[in-house]
Design goal:
Blueprint lengths: L1 H16 L2 H4 L6 H10 L5 E4 L3 H10 L8 E4 L7 H9 L5 E3 L5 H6 L4 E3 L5 H14 L3
Parallel strand pairs: 1-2, 3-4
């Protein structure tokens, strides 16, 4: 089974390598959020359960290779409910996206915020509140 998965992932990267940038679209507001993060001097990490070559391909295709300080590879520690629960258990405020998982499962994981995309007014209101509390103009 492991051999099949390795072959499948290799074929996927080969097939997608040339077309990923054409067909991969960032979630609305992604670049606005990355600018906010950079403007505030925050450290960035990508957390994914994808194999390293797949993660690197997607990050590169989105033009984010230089954005992330680190890429954390793990099993089920990404946008899955178990990954959200792990972040919450670690004491981090976790923001969930309504893109892949049922909303009720995400809410049961005790998210700090659930958003549709990175343009969601709830996200920007929360970031503005952080700025206000920090005294950022």
């Amino acid at each position: 089974m492991v051999g099949f998965q390795l072959l499948r992932n290799s074929l996927l990267r080969t097939l997608l390598g040339g077309i990923t940038a054409t067909f991969l679209h960032p979630i609305d507001g992604l670049y606005k959020l990355t600018k906010w993060v950079e403007d505030h001097g925050l450290k960035q990490a990508a957390v994914t359960n994808a194999p390293k070559p797949n993660a690197e391909l997607m990050i590169s295709a989105l033009g984010l290779s230089d954005f992330f300080d680190t890429v954390v590879l793990g099993r089920r520690q990404n946008d899955s409910v178990s990954g959200i629960k792990a972040g919450v258990a670690a004491g981090m405020p976790v923001v969930g996206l309504k893109t892949r998982n049922p909303e009720h499962l995400l809410m049961e994981a005790k998210l700090a915020l659930l958003i549709k995309d990175y343009e969601d007014p709830k996200l920007w209101a929360a970031l503005e509140e952080l700025d206000r509390k920090a005294g950022v103009a």
